[in-house]
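User: Could you write out the 3D structure of this protein bound to flavin mononucleotide? I've included everything you need below.
Assistant: Certainly. Input first, then the structure.
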Amino acid sequence: MWKDWIRPLLRPSPQWSVVAVAPPQRAVSASLRWDGRSADVTADHTVASLRPLAIATSVDAGRVPVLEYHDAATGKLLGGLQLEKMASIAATQTSVVLYRVAAGGHRCLGWPQRSWNAWLQNRAIRKNRSPHGPGIEPAAAQQLMIAYLCPRPVVLVSVAAPAHCNIFPMDLIGPLERSGFFSLALRSTNVSVPVIRELRRVVLSSVPAAMKAAVYRLGEQHTHPLSGWNALPFPVRPSRRWGIPAVAAALRIRELAIVADREVGSHTFFLGRIDCDEDLAGGVQLHHTAGFHQAYRRRQGTPFAEVA
Ligand SMILES: Cc1cc2nc3c(=O)[nH]c(=O)nc-3n(C[C@H](O)[C@H](O)[C@H](O)COP(=O)(O)O)c2cc1C
């Protein structure tokens, strides 16, 4: 049927692919290049804000570095982001640099499919914009997908205060290796932001890929804190030192002591130190990557396992 042939040409690749990866991911490496120098930042960069789209790293890579993502197995350049220095955050004798994303491109699809796919995706992004907020601009959404060429692990973040408990999914997280910090970029409108600022403690549960449905449901019920830990559809267990409820089936549970926070556009960027790290089980963790990255890997015969 001609429709079967034409349909894939009229449908963009999905923006995001939900995949199961054993942590830490080693499929893609990230490096910063500036002034003839380079640094491996696979475990030392994260998204700090969506509006403006900003990247944080503990490497001071000058004023206008390039962040590149390579397929670790073949060395092929998958994509890159042009960065511009915004600010530095000084915290406990070390600092983290914030870079605004100025431009970006990827090589996961050939030309002209790449431009056509981006045009179709951008049209869908404009059409599906929420009436409640300005959302993210199509160009920034394309750049964000490039930042997800390194598959991003999903955790559930637990917050427990006497009058407020909550647990919600996050993937704008990560170690900033050289500084020893672990960061979280949380929308400033999230109901738990003031509590985290005050309490300076959260617990991160690395979630098995099989928990996808429960994780997404928690993401949808975001306007209110949790009514109680018993309301969760999965068992919890206390974290080792602080006794904060965390996912009983987690692959890993980390207690994160917050040492600094800063508003960066739409997000509050928290910097913390891991206080206690419980490595509980092997297995695959829920991750997100860009749809065009998964399409590229499928063509290479090395797709990530997709989570239905
Ligand atoms: C898989 C997944 C990952 C998410 N990652 C983040 C994140 O890194 N930062 C964030 O602010 N919200 C993230 N969210 C949304 C939050 O869980 C939560 O719904 C949101 O912060 C609530 O803010 P709001 O009340 O302003 O919508 C994610 C949701 C899902 C389903």
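The domain at 2-149 is CATH 2.30.110 (Pnp Oxidase; Chain A).
User: Perfect, thank you.
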